[in-house]
Design a protein that fits this description.
mainly alpha, two-stranded antiparallel ribbon, 2 strands, about 0% strand, extended
C-alpha cells in the first residue's frame, strides 16, 4: 500500500508479478494499469432507425459503466489508468469532438431514454475531467504540483482545443468549477500559456478561411498577399451551394461561441489574444463578412423555411458573440486595470481610446457594438476615473459614434446590462442586429437550445418571457413615438409588437407599414387597449406582527420617543438608580387609591343620573322622593341575617392598598414598649404583601441589636473613619483621631505588645542602647 502523507509520484508499492514474486514498483507505473477497453463515443444521427437507437443506448451504457468504474478507483489506480490507458483518452476525445452542441442543427431526441442516457453520460465525462484537473484530493492523496503539471503536459491529458471544448460543452451552470480547473492547469503548467500563444494565429486563420470561402478579403489581407489567377472564378456567398453556405454559418457560429465561452470562463487569456491584435482583426472581419452573409441569406430562396430561420438565428447569435468577445477583450485588458487603480492608468486609458477611435472606420461594427455596450457609458466611466482625459478627444469620439448611427439609420441604443448579466441570459431572445428588413420576423422568436446542454433542463423554444428590459418611462416614450405616426393602433397591440421585436420602435413601425408582422401579431386586434396593471397590495398593510401599534411602530406612528431608544447599555445608568426608580409605583398609586373610596349615600339633584352610583342610567325626578306612607312593618325583621351565606364576596377581608403603593411620608405611630414593637413588626411581616426591602430589614435588625446592647450596658463601637477621603481632598477630624488611635493600639493584638515590652526592657537597662 502507498504511504500516507507522501506524494503519489514519490510512493513505492509492493506487488506480485505473474510468477508470484514480490517486486517494488512506483505508484505511477504502466504495469499497475487495469486491462479495460473504453469504447469511443458515436453520436446518434438525425434520421436514426430503432436499431441505431438501440445501438446508441447500448454503447452509451458501456461508456457510462466504464466511467463510473473509473471514478470509483482509488487515487493511485485512477491516475495509472488515466496516464497509461490510451483507449480512455480516445473515448474522452471522441465525446468532446462529437457531443451535440446547443447550436447544432440536430433535432432533439424523441425518446426519453436517449435524453436520460445522454444526460448521465454528459455528467460522468465532466466528473472525469474535473478529477483529472485536481492535483490534491485530500491530505493523503495528492501529487506534487510540478510533477502534476508535467504529467498533464507530457501525456496530452489537456490541451488548448480540449479546454475550449470543455468550456463550450460544460460552461453553462459550471462556470466557477471550470474556472478553477483551467486556472489550476495553467498555474501548475505555465507551458499552456505558450500553447495558447501559438493557438491564436490558428484562430485568426479561421477568419481568413471564412473570408476566402465567401469571396471577400479585407484590405490589409489583400495588400499582404497577391491575388491568385483563379481567384475570380471562386464561388461567393451568393453563388455557392446551399449546403456550403449553411456549413460556413455553422462554422462561424461554433467558432465564435467556443471562443466566447473560453474567454468568459478564463479571462486571463484575454491578454494573450490582445497581444496578437486580435481585436482589430475581429472588427475588420465583422465589417466585411457579416453584411455579405446577411445579403446572401436575404437573396437566397430556401425551400425549407425552418432551415432559413435556424440559419438566421445562428448568424445573429454569431454576431452577438463576436461583439461580446470584443467587449471582453476591452474590459479585461483596458477598462478593468483602470477600475482597479493600477499605477499606469493613463496608459490603459490611452489604449482604450485608441481602440474606440479605430472603431470609427468600421461603421457597421461600431453601430452594433454601441447598441449592446454603449460607448458613451465607458467614456463617462473613464472620465470619472481619470478627470485629466482630453475632453476634445472624447467629444470627437462620441460625435463619430453619433455620425455612424445616423449613416446606418440606427436609433440611440437603450441602456443595456453588464457582461456578467449577459452571460446568464443565454436562453433569452437574441437581439436583432439590423440584418435586413425582409427577415425581421425571423428574429422575433427565441433560440432553440439543442445538444447535450439542451437536455439539462433548458427552456424550450417558443416560450414567451415576461421580462421587460426597459423602464416604465422608456416604454411610454416608445409608445408615444409610434402613436404619433400610427394613432389608430391600441397601446396593448403596440406593447406586444415592442416585446416581440426587442423594444425597437423603428423595426415595429417598418414591419407594420410593410405588413411583415409575425403571424401571432397579425392575428391580434390592432385596437387592443393596454392591459390593466394590477396593483399589488402593500407589504406593510398585509403584514401581521405582535409589535403592531406599539410605541415603537415606525410604520404606523409619525413620532417615536427617541429618548427611550439607545444602542448598547444606556449611558449614565447604574443598577442603584434603576432600583431606586419608583416612577411606575407613583403611576399606579392613583389607580389603587380609587379602589378604597366607598360612598354609602349619594345625594342626587332632580334630573341627575345614577350611573356613577349604581351603574344604571335611571333619572330621578321630583316624584321619586321618600314616601312616608310606605308600609315598613317587615323591614326591621332581619330574615336570614344569621344564616350561613355561601357568597365569599361578603365574607372576604376589606380591600387594602399594597404597602409599596402607600405614601412614603406617612408617619408611623411611635411604639413605646418593645413587646408592642415586636408585635407590630410581626404583624407587618405576616401581612399579605410582596417581599420587603432588604435594606429596611437590615436597618430594623441593626436597631434592635443596638437597643439590646444599650440595655445590657455594652459599649457600642462607632464606625471607624480610618479610610477617609481620597488623597488630595483633605481629611476630617474623625479620620485623624481614628488613624492615631489605630497607630497607638495596633500592637495590642497579634503582636502581643512587643513594642510596649521592648520599651519597658530598654527603660530598665536590660537592652543595651
Amino acid at each position: 500500500m502507498a504511504c500516507a502523507r507522501v506524494p503519489l509520484d514519490e510512493q513505492q508499492v509492493t506487488e506480485r508479478d505473474a510468477v508470484g514474486k514480490e517486486r517494488s514498483l512506483p505508484a505511477l507505473h504502466p504495469d499497475r494499469k487495469e486491462e479495460r477497453f473504453f469504447v469511443p463515443y458515436v453520436p446518434l444521427s438525425a434520421d436514426a432507425c430503432p436499431a441505431e437507437v438501440e445501438e446508441f443506448l447500448e454503447r452509451s451504457k458501456f461508456i457510462l459503466e466504464d466511467l463510473e468504474w473509473l471514478l470509483a478507483l482509488p487515487h493511485d489506480k485512477f491516475w495509472c489508468q488515466v496516464v497509461f490507458d490510451t483507449s480512455l483518452q480516445k473515448c474522452l476525445d471522441s465525446y468532446l469532438h462529437h457531443a451535440p452542441r446547443r447550436l447544432d442543427l440536430v433535432p432533439e431526441p424523441s425518446s426519453p431514454g436517449v435524453a436520460e442516457t445522454q444526460r448521465a453520460l454528459h455528467r460522468a465525462v465532466f466528473f472525469v475531467f474535473l478529477r483529472m484537473a485536481t492535483h490534491k484530493e485530500s491530505k493523503e492523496n495528492f501529487i506534487t504540483p510540478a510533477v502534476f503539471g508535467e504529467v498533464l503536459y507530457e501525456n496530452y491529458l489537456f490541451d488548448i482545443p480540449k479546454i475550449m471544448d470543455l468550456c463550450m460543452l460544460f460552461g453553462k451552470g459550471n462556470a466557477q468549477l471550470l474556472h478553477k480547473m483551467i486556472e489550476n492547469i495553467f498555474t501548475q503548467q505555465p507551458s499552456y500559456y505558450r500553447d495558447l500563444d501559438d493557438t491564436v494565429p490558428t484562430i485568426l486563420a479561421v477568419f481568413d478561411t471564412i473570408e476566402e470561402k465567401c469571396g471577400v478579403r479585407c484590405d490589409a489581407a489583400a495588400a499582404a498577399e497577391p491575388m491568385k489567377l483563379n481567384a475570380r472564378n471562386q464561388p461567393t456567398s451568393i453563388s455557392m451551394t446551399q449546403q456550403d453556405f449553411v456549413d460556413i454559418v455553422l462554422y462561424l457560429c461554433d467558432t465564435s461561441s467556443t471562443l466566447h465561452a473560453f474567454l468568459n470562463i478564463f479571462p486571463a487569456a484575454c491578454s494573450t489574444f490582445h497581444s496578437h491584435s486580435f481585436l482589430s482583426r475581429l472588427t475588420s472581419f465583422y465589417e466585411s463578412v457579416v453584411p455579405d452573409l446577411e445579403m446572401a441569406l436575404t437573396k437566397r430562396k430556401f425551400e425549407d423555411k425552418s432551415l432559413q430561420e435556424d440559419v438566421w438565428q445562428r448568424l445573429s447569435h454569431s454576431c452577438r458573440k463576436m461583439l461580446e468577445i470584443a467587449h471582453l477583450l476591452l474590459h479585461h485588458t483596458c477598462l478593468q486595470p483602470i477600475l482597479e487603480g493600477v499605477e499606469n492608468m493613463q496608459t490603459f486609458a490611452e489604449e482604450l481610446l485608441q481602440h474606440f477611435t479605430s472603431f470609427l472606420s468600421e461603421k457597421r461594427f461600431l453601430c452594433d457594438y454601441d447598441k449592446l455596450f454603449p460607448i458613451a457609458e465607458d467614456v463617462s466611466l473613464l472620465q470619472q476615473a481619470l478627470p485629466v482625459i482630453d475632453e476634445t478627444r472624447t467629444s470627437y469620439l462620441l460625435q463619430g459614434v453619433h455620425s455612424a448611427r445616423d449613416s446606418m439609420g440606427r436609433s440611440k441604443p437603450q441602456p443595456t446590462v453588464s457582461v456578467s448579466q449577459l452571460a446568464n441570459q443565454e436562453t433569452m431572445r437574441e437581439a436583432s442586429l439590423s440584418i435586413g428588413h425582409d427577415v425581421r420576423q425571423a428574429e422575433g422568436g427565441r433560440e432553440s437550445p439543442r445538444g447535450a446542454e439542451a437536455m439539462l433542463d433548458a427552456p424550450r423554444r417558443g416560450s414567451n418571457g415576461a421580462i421587460c428590459p426597459v423602464s416604465e418611462a422608456e416604454l411610454e416614450s416608445l409608445l408615444s413615438c409610434i402613436r404619433d405616426l400610427l394613432p389608430d393602433l391600441g397601446e396593448g397591440f403596440l406593447m406586444a409588437c415592442l416585446e416581440e421585436y426587442g423594444y425597437d420602435s423603428e423595426v415595429v413601425i417598418n414591419n407594420i407599414l410593410e405588413g411583415q408582422l409575425a403571424p401571432a401579431l397579425d392575428a391580434m386586434d390592432r385596437s387592443m387597449p393596454r392591459p390593466v396593471k394590477e396593483n399589488l397590495p402593500g407589504v406593510l398593510s398585509s403584514r401581521s406582527n405582535v409589535f403592531d401599534d406599539d410605541e415603537f411602530d415606525v410604520f404606523r406612528r409619525d413620532r417615536v420617543d427617541m429618548t427611550r431608544v439607545w444602542k448598547g447599555r444606556r449611558k449614565g445608568e447604574s443598577v442603584e438608580e434603576l432600583l431606586n426608580d419608583k416612577q411606575h409605583i407613583s403611576e399606579q398609586r392613583t389607580r389603587y387609591q380609587a379602589y378604597q373610596t366607598v360612598v354609602d349615600e349619594v345625594e342626587l339633584q332632580p334630573g341627575d343620573t345614577a350611573e356613577g352610583a349604581r351603574g344604571t342610567s335611571a333619572s330621578y325626578g321630583i316624584g321619586d322622593e321618600y314616601d312616608d306612607e310606605y308600609d315598613d312593618t317587615y323591614d326591621m325583621n332581619q330574615v336570614g341575617a344569621n344564616d350561613q351565606d355561601g357568597d365569599t364576596l361578603l365574607n372576604r377581608r376589606p380591600f387594602t392598598i399594597p404597602r409599596v403603593l402607600q405614601k412614603a411620608n406617612k408617619a408611623e405611630e411611635p411604639q413605646e414598649e418593645e413587646n408592642q414593637e415586636d408585635q407590630g413588626l410581626q404583624s407587618n411581616m405576616n401581612r399579605d404583601q410582596f417581599i420587603e426591602d432588604p435594606a429596611l430589614l437590615r436597618e430594623r435588625v441593626e436597631a434592635k441589636r443596638t437597643a439590646m446592647q444599650e440595655r445590657k450596658g455594652i459599649r457600642v463601637e462607632h464606625p471607624s473613619h480610618v479610610v477617609g477621603r481620597p488623597k488630595g481632598q483633605g481629611q476630617t477630624l474623625e479620620t485623624f483621631l481614628d488613624r492615631r488611635k489605630k497607630e497607638a493600639n495596633k500592637g495590642r493584638g497579634a503582636n502581643h505588645n512587643r513594642r510596649n515590652m521592648a520599651d519597658r526592657k530598654r527603660n530598665k537597662g536590660m537592652i543595651p542602647s
